[in-house]
Amino acid sequence: MSRTLARRRAAGFAAALAVLGAGIAVAVVAPQRPAQAASTLAQYAEAKGRYFGSATDNPELTDAPYVAILTGGEFDQLTPGNSMKWDTTEPTQGQFSYTKGDAVVTLAQQHNMSIRGHNLVWHNQLPGWVSSLPTGQVQAAMENHITNEATHYKGKVFAWDVVNEPFNDDGTYRTDVFYNAMGVGYIADALRTAHAADPGAKLYINDYNIEGSGAKADAMYSLVSSLKSQGVPIDGVGIQGHLATQYGFPGNMQQNLQRFADLGLDVAITELDVRMPLPETAAQDATQATYYTNVVKACLAVSRCVGITIWDYTDKYSWVPSTFPGQGAPLPWDANLAKKPLYDTIVAALGGPTTPPSSTPPSSTRPSSTPPSSTPTTSTSPTRTPPTSAPPASGRCHVTYQVASQWNTGFTANVTVANTGSTAINGWTLRWTFANGQKVTQSWNGTFSQSGAQVTVTNVSYNGTIPAGGSTSLGFNGSWSGTNAVPTSFTVNGTTCA
Ligand code: G3I
C-alpha cells in the first residue's frame, strides 16, 4: 500500500498558466438562468477557487421547498449527514446497504454538486456488533467495511472522512473499539485501506475543536505529521467548525490551518455552524456573524483550504437543538427556510457585496424588521451585471490551470476561466489538449468530455454566465504517467485565449 511518491503539491502554482487574450467570439448558449453576476454562496466561493457545500440527510429530501434551495445553486457540494455512516451502511456484519447514501449521491449528480464521503471509521453511530467483536476480529471488520464502502462510492465522492474524531479534547486518543484493538496504528491502516479501494479520493482525518490552536489541534498536527513522514496516504485535515457564541472564537485559526497546509495537506471546513443560547438576540447574531466571517476569511487566506461545508443550511434541520437543548439558530437560513442577515454576512466574507440588495422583495417568512432576503436563484448583489441574453461583441479571457496536487498516478487540477472583457459571457465551452496522455477521471463544476487528447468542458446550469470582470472555477481529477505537462493553449467558445 505504500506509495512510491508522496503526494505533493506540484509546481503547479509555478506552472499556473495565465493566458490573456484575444477577443472571444461568444456563441450564445441559452443560459438556464438569467445572466447575472455571482449571486450564490457557491458562485462566490468558486470565484475564490473554493466550494461551498451543505450537509443534508435523507428524511429532509421529502421537503420540496428545502430541496429546492439545497439544489438551487447555493451549494456546489453535499455531505450526507448520516447516510454513509457505519450504522446505516453495514448494520449487520457483512450486509451492506447503500440506498440512503446513493440517494444523496444521485441528487448531487443531478445538480452538478460534488460529494464528501462522511465517514468510514468513527466511534459513534457504530452498530453494536462492531463494539462486541473480539479484539482480534476488529481490524478485519474495519478493513472490510472500508473496502466495501469506498469501493461502492469510488468515483462518486471526491473525498472521504476516513477517520472521524480520533481525539479527546485534551489531545489524547479516544479509546474506542478501534484504538483498543489496534492502537494508534488503526488510523494508518484505515487510510491505506481506503486508498487501496479508491486511489482517486482525497483522504481526510476529521475532528472538532481543532479550529484554533490548542492541545487537540496540536495532537492532530503531530498525528498527520507522523503519517506524512511514514508515507501513509493522507491528503487533508477536516476542521469541523461546530462553534458556539458563548465559548469565544478559536485562537489563531488561520495560522492553525496554515501549519497543516505547510505539511503538504489540504484543509477543509467540513461541518460549520455557530450555535447560540436561545432566545436569539441581536448581540448574539452579531457575534455569530463575526465567527462565520472569521472562518470564511481564514479559509480564503490559506490557499490549501479547499472549501467550506455548513452542517445543513437551515435551522429547520440542524442537529443542535436535540443535542444542546436551549441552544440553536446556528445556520444562515431560519427554520422557515428564509435567509437570515447572516447569509449576506457570509456572502460578504466570500468577497461578494457587503450590503444587502435593495431591489429584492423581503421574505414573507422573516419578521418585518429583518433585512430583505432572496431566493437562491435571485442575486443578492446590488452591483450585479444587468441580465442580458445578447452575446458580447468582443471580450477577453484569462485561464488559470493549476495542478493543485499530484501523486504517482493521479492529479487534481483547478481551472479558472475569467472574463476580462466588457460584456457577459452567456454559455461557455472551454477546450484544451493534453500533451502527455492525461485522462480526466472525475470532474466538478463543468460537463467534461474527452476525445483522445482533447478535453471539452461546457458550463453547468449554475455557472453558464460569466459577467464582465467575473470568473468561474471548475476542476477535475485526472490520471497521468511519465510527464504531466500543463496545457499550453485554451479556447473559450472557439477562440483562443492566448
Ligand atoms: O434514525 C433514528 C430513528 O430511527 C429514531 O427514531 C430517532 C430517534 O431519536 O433517531 C434516529 O437517529 C438519529 C440520527 O441522527 C439520524 O437522524 C440519532 O438519534 C441522532 O443522534 C443522530 O444525530 C446525528 C449525530 O451526528 C450523531 O452523532 C446528526 O443527525 C448528525 O448531524 C451528526 O453529525 C455529526 C457528524 O457526523 C460528526 N461531527 C459532529 C456532527 C454533529 O454531531
UniProtKB/TrEMBL annotation:
Boundaries of every GH10 domain copy: 55-349
Catalytic residue positions: E271
Coiled-coil region list: none
Pfam families, sorted: CBM_2, Glyco_hydro_10
Disordered: region residues: 348-395
Single GO MF descriptor: polysaccharide binding
Assigned EC number: 3.2.1.8
Signal peptide range in chain numbering: 1-27
GO BP annotations, alphabetical order: xylan catabolic process
Catalysed reactions listed for this entry: Endohydrolysis of (1->4)-beta-D-xylosidic linkages in xylans
CBM2 domain location: 390-498
Alphabetically ordered keywords of this record: Carbohydrate metabolism, Glycosidase, Hydrolase, Polysaccharide degradation, Signal, Xylan degradation
Protein family according to the UniProt entry: Belongs to the glycosyl hydrolase 10 (cellulase F) family.
UniProt-listed PANTHER family: BETA-XYLANASE (PTHR31490:SF88), GLYCOSYL HYDROLASE (PTHR31490)
Protein name: Beta-xylanase
